Amino acid sequence: MVERLLPPLSDTDERAVAGFMSRLASTTSAPSLPGADIVWLKASLVQRWEAERQAQRPLDNMQYLHIGLGLVAAVVLFVWSVPALLQSLTALRP
Amino acid sequence: MAWADEATFSAFYGRTARALWAYVYRATRNAADADDIVQEAFYRIVTADLEALAEEDRRRYLFRVASNLMVDRWRRGAREGADRAAARPDASSRVIPHADPDIDMAATFAGLKPRERALLWLAYVEEHDHQAIAAALGVGRNSVKVLLSRARARLRDLLKARGMIGEPHG
Protein backbone atom coordinates (compact mmCIF):
# COMPACT_ATOMS: atom_id res chain seq x y z
CA MET A 1 0.00 0.00 0.00
CA VAL A 2 2.73 2.42 1.03
CA GLU A 3 4.82 1.28 -1.90
CA ARG A 4 2.07 2.33 -4.29
CA LEU A 5 2.33 5.87 -2.98
CA LEU A 6 6.02 6.04 -3.89
CA PRO A 7 6.72 7.21 -7.42
CA PRO A 8 8.72 4.54 -9.23
CA LEU A 9 12.17 5.42 -10.50
CA SER A 10 12.47 5.88 -14.25
CA ASP A 11 14.88 3.60 -16.08
CA THR A 12 17.31 6.50 -16.41
CA ASP A 13 17.20 7.25 -12.70
CA GLU A 14 17.50 3.57 -11.84
CA ARG A 15 20.58 3.29 -14.03
CA ALA A 16 22.01 6.44 -12.45
CA VAL A 17 21.48 5.09 -8.94
CA ALA A 18 22.97 1.70 -9.85
CA GLY A 19 25.90 3.38 -11.59
CA PHE A 20 26.51 5.64 -8.62
CA MET A 21 26.54 2.66 -6.23
CA SER A 22 28.91 0.79 -8.51
CA ARG A 23 31.33 3.74 -8.69
CA LEU A 24 31.10 4.29 -4.95
CA ALA A 25 31.95 0.63 -4.32
CA SER A 26 34.90 0.74 -6.70
CA THR A 27 36.35 3.82 -5.01
CA THR A 28 36.01 2.48 -1.47
CA SER A 29 39.25 0.81 -0.56
CA ALA A 30 39.87 -0.59 2.88
CA PRO A 31 43.00 0.44 4.77
CA SER A 32 45.37 -2.23 5.97
CA LEU A 33 43.33 -4.79 7.84
CA PRO A 34 44.81 -7.22 10.36
CA GLY A 35 45.88 -10.54 8.87
CA ALA A 36 43.63 -13.57 9.08
CA ASP A 37 46.15 -15.29 11.39
CA ILE A 38 45.88 -12.45 13.92
CA VAL A 39 42.07 -12.50 13.82
CA TRP A 40 42.13 -16.28 14.20
CA LEU A 41 44.53 -16.07 17.15
CA LYS A 42 42.50 -13.36 18.89
CA ALA A 43 39.29 -15.28 18.30
CA SER A 44 40.95 -18.38 19.77
CA LEU A 45 41.96 -16.42 22.86
CA VAL A 46 38.50 -14.87 23.23
CA GLN A 47 36.94 -18.31 22.90
CA ARG A 48 39.34 -19.77 25.50
CA TRP A 49 38.64 -16.93 27.95
CA GLU A 50 34.94 -17.42 27.46
CA ALA A 51 35.27 -21.17 28.06
CA GLU A 52 37.31 -20.51 31.22
CA ARG A 53 34.75 -18.00 32.41
CA GLN A 54 31.93 -20.46 31.88
CA ALA A 55 33.86 -23.20 33.66
CA GLN A 56 34.62 -20.86 36.56
CA ARG A 57 31.01 -19.67 36.89
CA PRO A 58 29.69 -22.71 38.86
CA LEU A 59 32.62 -22.41 41.25
CA ASP A 60 31.85 -18.72 41.80
CA ASN A 61 28.20 -19.55 42.35
CA MET A 62 29.18 -22.27 44.83
CA GLN A 63 31.12 -19.70 46.85
CA TYR A 64 27.98 -17.61 47.28
CA LEU A 65 26.06 -20.77 48.16
CA HIS A 66 28.63 -21.67 50.81
CA ILE A 67 28.43 -18.22 52.38
CA GLY A 68 24.63 -18.39 52.37
CA LEU A 69 24.59 -21.87 53.90
CA GLY A 70 27.07 -20.75 56.56
CA LEU A 71 24.86 -17.79 57.52
CA VAL A 72 21.76 -20.00 57.65
CA ALA A 73 23.61 -22.54 59.81
CA ALA A 74 24.75 -19.76 62.16
CA VAL A 75 21.20 -18.46 62.52
CA VAL A 76 19.80 -21.98 63.14
CA LEU A 77 22.52 -22.67 65.69
CA PHE A 78 21.81 -19.40 67.47
CA VAL A 79 18.04 -20.01 67.56
CA TRP A 80 18.61 -23.57 68.71
CA SER A 81 20.90 -22.44 71.53
CA VAL A 82 18.73 -19.54 72.78
CA PRO A 83 16.68 -21.67 75.26
CA ALA A 84 19.87 -23.18 76.68
CA LEU A 85 21.46 -19.72 76.99
CA LEU A 86 18.39 -18.34 78.75
CA GLN A 87 18.38 -21.33 81.08
CA SER A 88 22.05 -20.77 81.87
CA LEU A 89 21.45 -17.06 82.55
CA THR A 90 18.51 -17.88 84.81
CA ALA A 91 20.64 -20.36 86.73
CA LEU A 92 23.33 -17.75 87.22
CA ARG A 93 20.91 -15.30 88.92
CA PRO A 94 21.19 -15.22 92.73
CA MET B 1 36.86 -23.80 16.68
CA ALA B 2 33.83 -24.24 14.48
CA TRP B 3 35.90 -24.00 11.27
CA ALA B 4 37.66 -26.98 9.81
CA ASP B 5 41.04 -25.31 10.02
CA GLU B 6 42.77 -21.96 10.01
CA ALA B 7 43.50 -22.16 6.29
CA THR B 8 39.78 -22.39 5.46
CA PHE B 9 39.10 -19.38 7.63
CA SER B 10 42.02 -17.44 6.14
CA ALA B 11 40.73 -18.02 2.64
CA PHE B 12 37.25 -16.86 3.65
CA TYR B 13 38.71 -13.83 5.43
CA GLY B 14 40.74 -12.93 2.36
CA ARG B 15 37.65 -13.04 0.17
CA THR B 16 35.32 -11.10 2.47
CA ALA B 17 37.18 -8.80 4.86
CA ARG B 18 37.68 -5.86 2.49
CA ALA B 19 34.15 -6.04 1.12
CA LEU B 20 32.77 -6.14 4.65
CA TRP B 21 34.94 -3.22 5.74
CA ALA B 22 33.78 -1.17 2.73
CA TYR B 23 30.13 -1.89 3.58
CA VAL B 24 30.49 -1.01 7.25
CA TYR B 25 32.57 2.07 6.51
CA ARG B 26 30.09 3.45 3.98
CA ALA B 27 27.17 2.76 6.31
CA THR B 28 28.78 4.15 9.48
CA ARG B 29 31.02 6.80 7.83
CA ASN B 30 33.59 6.06 10.48
CA ALA B 31 36.81 4.13 9.81
CA ALA B 32 37.46 3.35 13.48
CA ASP B 33 33.94 1.95 13.92
CA ALA B 34 34.39 -0.05 10.73
CA ASP B 35 37.62 -1.57 12.09
CA ASP B 36 35.94 -2.51 15.38
CA ILE B 37 32.81 -3.93 13.81
CA VAL B 38 34.67 -5.95 11.18
CA GLN B 39 36.96 -7.49 13.80
CA GLU B 40 34.08 -8.23 16.14
CA ALA B 41 32.08 -9.79 13.31
CA PHE B 42 34.96 -12.09 12.41
CA TYR B 43 35.49 -13.08 16.06
CA ARG B 44 31.87 -14.14 16.18
CA ILE B 45 32.12 -15.91 12.84
CA VAL B 46 35.13 -17.91 13.96
CA THR B 47 33.24 -19.34 16.91
CA ALA B 48 29.93 -19.82 15.07
CA ASP B 49 28.94 -23.24 13.78
CA LEU B 50 28.96 -22.61 10.04
CA GLU B 51 30.33 -25.91 8.77
CA ALA B 52 27.09 -26.83 7.03
CA LEU B 53 26.73 -23.48 5.25
CA ALA B 54 27.84 -22.80 1.70
CA GLU B 55 30.32 -20.01 1.00
CA GLU B 56 27.63 -17.54 -0.08
CA ASP B 57 25.53 -18.26 3.02
CA ARG B 58 28.58 -17.77 5.25
CA ARG B 59 29.20 -14.46 3.59
CA ARG B 60 25.60 -13.39 4.13
CA TYR B 61 25.79 -14.52 7.75
CA LEU B 62 28.93 -12.42 8.19
CA PHE B 63 27.21 -9.33 6.76
CA ARG B 64 24.24 -10.04 9.01
CA VAL B 65 26.44 -10.15 12.11
CA ALA B 66 28.15 -6.90 11.09
CA SER B 67 24.78 -5.27 10.38
CA ASN B 68 23.51 -6.28 13.83
CA LEU B 69 26.59 -4.74 15.40
CA MET B 70 26.00 -1.55 13.41
CA VAL B 71 22.35 -1.39 14.41
CA ASP B 72 23.37 -1.83 18.07
CA ARG B 73 25.74 1.10 17.73
CA TRP B 74 23.13 3.28 16.03
CA ARG B 75 20.69 2.55 18.82
CA ARG B 76 23.31 3.31 21.45
CA GLY B 77 24.28 6.45 19.56
CA ALA B 78 20.65 7.53 19.34
CA ARG B 79 20.24 7.01 23.07
CA GLU B 80 23.36 9.00 23.82
CA GLY B 81 22.25 11.65 21.35
CA ALA B 82 25.69 11.86 19.88
CA ASP B 83 26.81 11.71 16.30
CA ARG B 84 29.95 9.66 16.47
CA ALA B 85 30.96 10.51 12.95
CA ALA B 86 30.76 14.21 13.65
CA ALA B 87 32.73 13.73 16.84
CA ARG B 88 35.64 12.31 14.89
CA PRO B 89 36.28 14.61 11.95
CA ASP B 90 39.51 12.81 11.11
CA ALA B 91 37.82 9.44 10.97
CA SER B 92 37.57 9.29 7.19
CA SER B 93 41.12 10.49 6.63
CA ARG B 94 42.36 6.91 6.48
CA VAL B 95 40.42 6.26 3.31
CA ILE B 96 42.16 8.24 0.65
CA PRO B 97 39.85 9.22 -2.18
CA HIS B 98 41.27 9.01 -5.65
CA ALA B 99 39.96 12.37 -6.81
CA ASP B 100 37.44 15.09 -6.06
CA PRO B 101 34.49 13.21 -7.64
CA ASP B 102 35.08 10.54 -5.00
CA ILE B 103 34.64 13.13 -2.25
CA ASP B 104 31.43 14.29 -3.94
CA MET B 105 30.16 10.73 -4.06
CA ALA B 106 30.99 10.14 -0.42
CA ALA B 107 29.28 13.39 0.57
CA THR B 108 26.22 12.52 -1.50
CA PHE B 109 25.97 9.07 0.04
CA ALA B 110 26.45 10.58 3.49
CA GLY B 111 23.26 12.57 2.88
CA LEU B 112 21.28 9.38 3.40
CA LYS B 113 20.32 7.89 6.74
CA PRO B 114 22.58 5.10 8.04
CA ARG B 115 19.97 2.41 7.43
CA GLU B 116 19.35 3.69 3.91
CA ARG B 117 23.07 3.52 3.20
CA ALA B 118 23.21 -0.05 4.50
CA LEU B 119 20.13 -1.02 2.49
CA LEU B 120 21.46 0.37 -0.76
CA TRP B 121 24.89 -1.16 -0.26
CA LEU B 122 23.49 -4.61 0.45
CA ALA B 123 21.12 -4.40 -2.49
CA TYR B 124 23.40 -2.91 -5.14
CA VAL B 125 26.95 -3.85 -4.14
CA GLU B 126 26.43 -7.13 -2.32
CA GLU B 127 23.40 -7.96 -4.47
CA HIS B 128 21.50 -9.46 -1.56
CA ASP B 129 17.84 -10.31 -2.12
CA HIS B 130 15.08 -8.79 0.01
CA GLN B 131 15.04 -11.73 2.38
CA ALA B 132 18.77 -11.51 3.07
CA ILE B 133 18.54 -7.75 3.58
CA ALA B 134 15.61 -8.18 5.94
CA ALA B 135 17.57 -10.74 7.96
CA ALA B 136 20.67 -8.56 8.00
CA LEU B 137 18.96 -5.39 9.14
CA GLY B 138 16.31 -6.93 11.37
CA VAL B 139 13.30 -5.62 9.46
CA GLY B 140 10.37 -7.37 7.80
CA ARG B 141 10.74 -8.64 4.26
CA ASN B 142 7.89 -6.45 3.03
CA SER B 143 9.37 -3.46 4.79
CA VAL B 144 12.60 -3.93 2.84
CA LYS B 145 10.78 -3.27 -0.45
CA VAL B 146 9.34 -0.04 0.88
CA LEU B 147 12.52 1.11 2.62
CA LEU B 148 14.64 0.28 -0.40
CA SER B 149 12.28 2.13 -2.67
CA ARG B 150 12.46 5.19 -0.43
CA ALA B 151 16.24 4.98 -0.19
CA ARG B 152 16.60 4.79 -3.96
CA ALA B 153 14.29 7.77 -4.40
CA ARG B 154 16.22 9.75 -1.81
CA LEU B 155 19.54 8.92 -3.44
CA ARG B 156 18.13 9.92 -6.83
CA ASP B 157 17.01 13.24 -5.36
CA LEU B 158 20.43 13.80 -3.83
CA LEU B 159 22.13 12.99 -7.13
CA LYS B 160 19.84 15.44 -8.94
CA ALA B 161 20.39 18.13 -6.33
CA ARG B 162 24.13 17.77 -6.80
CA GLY B 163 23.82 17.78 -10.58
CA MET B 164 25.15 14.24 -10.86
CA ILE B 165 22.16 13.20 -13.01
CA GLY B 166 19.61 15.13 -15.07
CA GLU B 167 17.01 17.41 -13.53
CA PRO B 168 13.58 15.95 -12.76
CA HIS B 169 11.07 16.11 -15.60
CA GLY B 170 8.40 18.62 -14.76
What are the SSEs and their pairings?
The complex is a heterodimer of chains A (94) and B (170).
Chain A: H1 2-5, H2 11-26, H3 36-92
Chain B: H1 6-28, H2 31-47, H3 55-80, H4 84-87, H5 100-110, H6 114-125, H7 130-137, H8 141-161
Helix pairs in contact in B: 1-2, 1-3, 1-6, 2-3, 3-7, 6-8, 7-8
Tell me what the structure shows.
The complex is a heterodimer of chains A (94) and B (170). Chain A has helices at 2-5, 11-26, 36-92. Chain A is mainly alpha-helical. Chain A has one domain (2-27, 36-92). The longest helix of chain A has 57 residues, at 36-92. Chain A is elongated and about 110 Å long. The model of chain A has no long low-confidence stretch (mean pLDDT 86). With 170 residues, chain B is mostly helical. Chain B has one domain (6-161): PhyR, sigma-like (SL) domain (Butyryl-CoA Dehydrogenase, subunit A, domain 3), CATH 1.20.140. Helices cover 72% and strands 0% of the residues of chain B. In chain B, helix 1 packs antiparallel against helix 2 (31-47), helix 2 crosses helix 3 and helix 7 (130-137) crosses helix 8 (141-161). The longest helix of chain B is centred in the middle third of the chain and has 26 residues, at 55-80. Chain B is globular, with a radius of gyration of 17 Å. The model of chain B is unreliable at 89-93 (pLDDT under 50). Chains A and B meet through helix 2 and helix 3 of A and helix 1, helix 2, helix 5, helix 6 and helix 8 of B.
